[in-house]
């Protein structure tokens, strides 16, 4: 009998990630992964209790990758960094982007809160956002995320004109972020004057 193939946990996660990026997270099954790896399900069950645990590992890989993309931008503007990272993800992984954004996704709930806190901490370091309370920064972040998700979905679904390249998308995203901050600052000043 030939020796059984051994696969590392990382190889199994990478195989599941490949399925997720081409078919979606919910399409990950033990059978598909074992077919992809050319093995039985035994090596998968050695590393994971069930498919749900494996899906969590895939989501963690995706979150880690998106955070790495954000940190690589390092522009000093968290909105630009988030925007560029989400647009790159939508361009490279449209199926996974649609899956994450369009479906109620139980896998990302914990990460979403953690990332919001991390982004607000980054926002506090931006001079243009000085003087805003944490609650105001959360509102600004939410408004920007709403715009960014819409733009990201348009990219993932290829709904933008062909000439609308990454540079144009980044310019638009930066412009909207600036508009949101200016409007928030004006509203804050207006409310202060009315007290």
UniProtKB/TrEMBL annotation:
UniProt keyword terms in alphabetical order: DNA-binding
Record has DNA-binding as a keyword: yes
InterPro entries, per the entry: Homeodomain-like_sf, HTH_TetR
Domain spans labelled HTH tetR-type: 6-66
Coiled coil: none
Residue range(s) of DNA binding per entry: 29-48
Family matches, as PROSITE patterns: HTH_TETR_2
Record's keyword annotation contains Secreted: no
Protein name, per record: HTH tetR-type domain-containing protein
Species in which this protein is naturally found: Siminovitchia terrae (Bacillus terrae)
């Amino acid at each position: 009998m030939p020796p059984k193939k051994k696969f590392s946990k990382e190889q199994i996660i990478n195989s599941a990630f490949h399925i997720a990026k081409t078919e979606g997270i919910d399409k990950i099954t033990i059978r598909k992964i074992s077919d992809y790896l050319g093995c039985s399900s035994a090596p998968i069950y050695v590393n994971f209790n069930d498919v749900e645990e494996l899906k969590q590992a895939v989501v963690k890989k995706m979150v880690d990758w998106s955070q790495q993309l954000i940190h690589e931008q390092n522009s000093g503007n968290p909105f630009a960094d988030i925007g560029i990272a989400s647009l790159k993800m939508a361009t490279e992984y449209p199926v996974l982007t649609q899956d994450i954004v369009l479906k109620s996704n139980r896998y990302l709930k914990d990460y979403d809160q953690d990332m919001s806190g991390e982004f607000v901490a980054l926002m506090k370091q931006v001079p243009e956002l000085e003087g805003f309370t944490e609650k105001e920064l959360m509102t600004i972040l939410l408004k920007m995320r709403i715009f960014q998700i819409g733009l990201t979905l348009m990219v993932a679904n290829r709904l933008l004109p062909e000439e609308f390249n990454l540079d144009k998308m980044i310019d638009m995203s930066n412009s909207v972020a600036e508009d949101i901050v200016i409007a928030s600052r004006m509203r804050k000043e207006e409310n202060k004057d009315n007290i």
